[in-house]
Amino acid sequence: MKGCALRILREVAKFGEISLSAAIRLGQPRYRSHLDQYPLALLLEEGYLGMTINHNPPSGAEAMREFSLATTLHMFALPKNERGEVHYLNVISTESIDPEKVWVFLKAKGALYLDERRQKWWDRFWFFVLGLGAGVLTTIASAWLRGQLTCPPKTGPVGM
């Protein structure tokens, strides 16, 4: 996992839960469309994150859950018209759900993923340190055995 999805997952993990509107704002506004919401939609659909409302795709779109959720999330970020409707991709939404009152929270799969990622980082760090240490010690021991490295002769105290 890279980029935006990892940033969203880390941000939610830092606080335990954040509002849906804050999670939507974490998506990078590169396309200014529902494409910006795919990282959050995928995290929700794959079970890394949970949400306090259920997303039920419209009938006929059950096989396109991620697309449906990304579109719905983007519609929460769009302004409503004078009748309180949001229009996007031939969909009209009149829902009264306030994204400030809906929470996105970390699920077990997300916590385990972040823990595993952190553990792998520490494993790589220690393997690097041990490998570097072994290389330095091997070089010193090899030079000493070949006689290229000698200890300085002992001298007595100055003035004697």
Major beta sheet, strand line-up: 1-5-2
Shape: rod-shaped
Main β sheet profile: 3 strands, antiparallel
Low-pLDDT runs of 5+ residues are: none
Distance between the termini: 69 Å
Give me the secondary-structure category. Answer: mainly alpha
Helix content: 40-55%
The total strand number stands at 5
How much strand?
A: 5-15%
What is the overall pLDDT average? 88
How would you spell out the order of helices and strands?
HEHHEHEEEH
Number of helices: 5
Please compute the radius of gyration using only Cα atoms.
28 Å
Please outline the helices and strands.
Blueprint: H1 3-15, E1 17-19, H2 20-26, H3 38-45, E2 49-51, H4 65-77, E3 86-88, E4 91-93, E5 103-106, H5 108-145
Antiparallel strand pairs: 1-5, 2-5, 3-4
Task: Outline the structure in words.
The chain has 160 residues and is mainly α. The protein has helices at 3-15, 20-26, 38-45, 65-77, 108-145; strands spanning 17-19, 49-51, 86-88, 91-93, 103-106. A 3-stranded antiparallel beta sheet has the order 1-5-2. Strands 3-4 form a two-stranded antiparallel sheet.
Key terms for this structure?
49% helix, mainly alpha, 5 strands, 160 residues, two-stranded antiparallel sheet, rod-shaped, single chain, 5 helices, three-stranded antiparallel β-sheet
In short:
Strand 3 and strand 4 form a beta hairpin. It is rod-shaped, with a radius of gyration of 28 Å. The chain starts with a helix and ends in a 15-residue tail after the last helix.
